[in-house]
Amino acid sequence: MPHSLNSEELYQKYLDLQLRVTRFSSIEQELINTRDQLDHELVMHKRLLEFNAEALKLNSEKEFIHLVAESVIDVCESQIAYASFINESTAERFMVVEGLRKKDESDAIEEIESFMAKNAIQKGVEIVHSDGKSANEIIKSCMYSSIIRINAHVSIVIATAISKEKSPLYPIINDRSKILFSLFIQQVESILSNIIIAQENREQMSTIADAQIELKKLSLIATKTKSGVIIADAKGRIEWVNNSFEQTTGFKLNEVIGRKPKEFLQSDLTSQEDKDLMTNALAAKESVQLTVLNKSKSGNHYYNQLTITPVFDEQGTLINFIALQKDITAEENYKKELIQINSRFELITNGTNIGMWEWDCVTNKTVWNSVLHELYGFEPSEDFDHYKEWFDSIHSDDVAKMNENMGILASGKQKAVEQNYRIIRKRFKNDIRYVKSLSQGIWDEGNNLIRIVGSSIDVTEEKEYETTLIEKNSELEKINNQLDQFIYSISHDLRSPLLSIKGLMTLIETSVDETESKLYHNLIGKSVGRLDNTILEILNYGRNSRVEIHQDEFNLVDMSKQLFEDLVFIAEEGIELKVFAEGSPVIFSDKIRIETLLKNLISNAIKYRKRNTNDALVHVKIKNEGERFIVEVIDNGEGISEQNQQRVFEMFYRASSSSHGTGLGLAMCHEIVKKLKGEIKLTSELGVGTALTLILPNNPPNA
Amino acid sequence: MIRFLLIDDDDIISVIHPATIQRAISNSDIEIAPSGNDAIALIDELIHLQESPPDYIFLDINMPEISGFEFLDSLTETELDFLKNSKIIMLSSSVNQQDIERAKSYPMIRDFVSKPLTVEYIRGLVGLAN
User: Fold this and answer.
1) Is A500 exposed, middle or buried (0-12, 13-18, 19+ CB in 10 A)?
2) What was the ipTM of the complex prediction?
């Protein structure tokens, strides 16, 4: 019987194999996992290397912090990154957050910062797990953070969070991330240190370069300047002088080096006061400015405008004195001369109205002569700020021009400027005067404006006279134009009937029909009438301006009725007059002028009446108010269009063609009313009627 | 038939001028407008009735409401087109250099004459000088 395994043994073997297979596959799985992890780690390290490479290209902290925030997410496979930079010495501070929606950012920042504060992470790398009580879901996670101190002033805070929900491999990557984060932090620290050191180096280099340029410029200025320059040590012994100093004083650098300037520059004539001033200022290590009388090597005296400035090093120790000296003998002499000239000028201008002034641009002192004091209302003995008083007085509309002129003078574009301007005199109830001024600049040899001298003349009266003249002239021009218009219109109005007569006569000469001839004769008569009427109106118009105003006593109601009777014949159809009076109809005024007024208004009402009916009306309403009286002449006639209403008071303006007027009537009424110091008003509506209102003064003799 | 339009506010001239035209030529048709506005109304009516335009327009300068020049300025495109073959003669009773200069600036104005019109002038105008 062959040996054979029974089924039980076979089953046992099978189970054994099964167990081995299971073991192998779990080992295989473990191997695969390890490989994956190693691969993953490799990726992480690669990312860290990339970060290094990127970071080394950057120059500024800002760019770097951005890169840190972006990279920490990649390197640690986290979801949120927070990086902030603080430089306490420059108060520079900025922060970057990555991986959050804009609206969540402020909450998250607050949370991260409070978390950092609570966990009191002060130095080195600390890795802490957040307890996840955050309102912000994403921070319910593991949080790594670190504060890195680069030096005494600069620190950087980095935090990153890995979300439990969002990271499926959370338990595995957690531990490794810690290591990666630590590595990352080390990288950040060393790179940032490098950046900062590089930057400091650059800054120092540029400061040194700037200082070198500055020094070059300064030495150039010191050498080339026309002012004498002395550099002395802390004890006042000369270290260096420039060319100008050598020229002014006659001493060479090698003669004066190591000596004190006062030993060889001060003369017996230098005042003790000036000497003390200098000595005291130097002892007190203060800067001093004064004008002293000095003596050159050849024994000549010169006025020296001197500025001495002490120089201190960063620790506040006196290291040098720098003195600038300028020979101003010419200016000083000139000043003396000017004072003499001024006093001579004062003598000459005394009694005239020429104001003289001088403004010293160096000392900012102003001198006025007596005329100017008088013009502005100041006593010569009074102490006041001349420049301010003068400038404040300039009329606001003239200030800009004045500034412009002073600018021109200061720039040296012109040696003198002339300006007419107005001043408002505070001491004369703010009256306005016109001033004509001439300002002349005076420059030193170095082309610096040192003073402005000038004259100011009050030309108010001339100006007023000129203004009156201009006004008179324009008035005359206006009158002239009116006269032209008048002559044109007159010639037209006088010639028209004459030319008609000429035409009619030609027609009569060749006429064979007697009825026709008769018609032409009648028309000649009508033309003559018109001509006569025009001449009369012109005479009346002229009369108004020439004849004095009379004072008469008369009854307006009677006058109106009589005028209407005289005029009504011109109307062929029936027309009715009604006169209404309120108060006494007896008034006191110029009878002839009032009659002319009323005649014109009533005749207009008749001429421009409602045609082809029998209900044309003229109403005259009279109201006596004591001091004045009002006359209204109202008709229900054709009316005047709105655009013509503006012009009816103009001479020779005819608004209607329905009657042959001269265009003088209402113009004359207007003139008369003006002469009597009254008013005339017109209201009218086309097709409805017209009302003219006269408001005139009533002058009873006992009033 | 020669058609005339007289625009003048002077009632006496409006008797003299038609009589003078009638003596100068036998076949005339004369319309009279006492103002520029009346003349415009008349022209518009002629356009409306599709009648032929006037051959000659005598236009007074000095008139109330609108002057002769203002009348010309207020003409519409249609009216101007209607009058494109009409000869316009400005009339005035005073010879003013300014008016003459102004008249020259209007190409449609053919002549500028002083009132009154004469038989000789009208015959010369219409080409009947004999």
Assistant:
1) buried
2) 0.89
Contacts of B17 in chain A (CB under 8 A): 503
Whether residue B129 lies within 8 A of chain A, CB to CB, comes out as: no
Q: Which CATH architecture describes the domain A39-195?
A: 2-Layer Sandwich (3.30)
- In this predicted model, what pLDDT tens digit does every residue of A141-190 receive, in sequence order? 556 677 777 777 888 888 777 766 665 555 555 566 677 777 788 878 88
In CATH, A459-546 is 1.10.287.130? yes
**Mean pLDDT in residue range A311-334:** 78
Interface of A with B in 503-522 (CB under 8 A): 503-504, 506-507, 510, 516, 519-520
Q: Domains for chain B: give ranges and CATH numbers.
A: 29-115 (3.40.50.2300)
Question: Which part of chain A has CATH 1.10.287.130?
Answer: 459-546
Peptide bond into B116 cis (omega under 30): yes
B114 inside 8 A of chain A by CB: yes
CB-CB neighbors (< 8 A) of B119 in chain A:
506, 510
Is residue A490 less than 8 Å (CB to CB) from chain B? no
In terms of Cβ atoms closer than 10 Å to its own Cβ (0-12, 13-18, 19+), residue A555 is: middle
CA distance A68 to A98: 10
Q: Domain A334-457: which topology?
A: Beta-Lactamase (3.30.450)
